[in-house]
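Q: What would this chain look like folded?
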Amino acid sequence: MYQHILIATDGSDLAGKAVSQGLALAKALNAKVTALNAIEPWTSTMLGEGVAFNFPIEEYETAAVNASESILAKVSEQAAASGVQCQTLHVSDFPADAIVQTAKDKGCDLIVMASHGRRGLARVLLGSQAIQVLTHTTVPVLVCR
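A: My prediction, written as structure tokens:
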């Protein structure tokens, strides 16, 4: 059935449920896993005409990489404990774009991810990575809540 599962995680408790479900499915199917953590890149913004907003970009990127390494190390430990072959990948990109592109690049035949199930204004303001992935991928998606 599925041979290569992409598990997307942001390290949240809810994403942890998706990681557990994805690893359990991979074990049952004897599938390999790629665990992905995507951090949005910091982009320079302009305030008014020609006034640059200075932000310690290097500090942001270092903190993002450290957080990603920690998140993915936990997934690797879970996978090893379950006897599942797992590769990890940190990407600096918008999460939905990174998930869709990684699934394509790695030849994944299933994406497992979480959704917060936000509604109303929260969904408008925060968006939905799951909806964006579902909209832009041709790969089946298992959404955990």
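Strands lie at 4-8, 32-39, 46-47, 51-52, 86-92, 110-114, 141-144.
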